[in-house]
UniProtKB/TrEMBL annotation:
Keyword entries, A-Z: Capsid protein, Virion
InterPro entries (UniProt xref): Spore_coat_protein_Z/Y (IPR019593)
Protein name, per record: CotY/CotZ family spore coat protein
Pfam families: Spore-coat_CotZ (PF10612)
Species this protein is from: Ornithinibacillus salinisoli
Length: 162
């Protein structure tokens, strides 16, 4: 029994999380070379400048929910500490920038964090624990299978690209 997210015969993949994330990637690519009823549609319109042209926004931050538990997904990763062969501090985030979605609904997500946010790994219990005041790119990317998710929450469009 699925979570009711698939729409057989609908345009796209039939996986609503995958289709929305692909739409976000396309919109973000339109903004950075390289009236709506839902938060995702509103955020995409903001990103594309349909509500305020020239707003400088380049990212729709997303929170994903695991299909089996219906809980927010927390991703983990680490930057290189001092070059190749060294691992920096492990960091976690519930908030991501979608970098890429392939034809099999696998996505590359970048962890977004506020610099200096003291909550890392186990101290970050749910999205409300995470400081969202000034999200920035971390350079930490993970690959996920979008078939494992049943819900996506889009936060308001922001600017994180320098």
């Amino acid at each position: 029994m699925g979570c009711g997210c698939r729409k057989e015969g609908a345009a796209g993949t039939g996986n609503c999380v995958c289709d929305i994330l692909r739409e976000i990637v396309d919109a973000q690519s339109d903004v950075v070379e390289n009236c709506c009823d839902t938060s995702c549609e509103q955020s995409i319109n903001e990103l594309l400048g349909e509500t305020d042209p020239g707003n400088g926004l380049d990212t729709v931050p997303v929170i994903l929910y695991c299909k089996d538990s219906c809980k927010p997904f927390k991703g983990f990763g680490a930057n290189r500490d001092n070059g190749i062969g060294t691992i920096g501090e492990l960091k976690a985030s519930f908030v991501f920038r979608v970098k890429r979605v392939d034809e099999d609904c696998c996505a590359v997500l970048e962890l977004l964090r506020t610099p200096g946010d003291p909550c890392t790994c186990d101290h970050l219990k749910d999205p409300c624990d995470q400081d969202l005041s000034e999200l920035e790119n971390t350079g930490i990317c993970i690959t996920v299978d979008l078939d494992c998710f049943c819900h996506v929450t889009c936060l308001p469009a922001i600017s994180v690209i320098d």
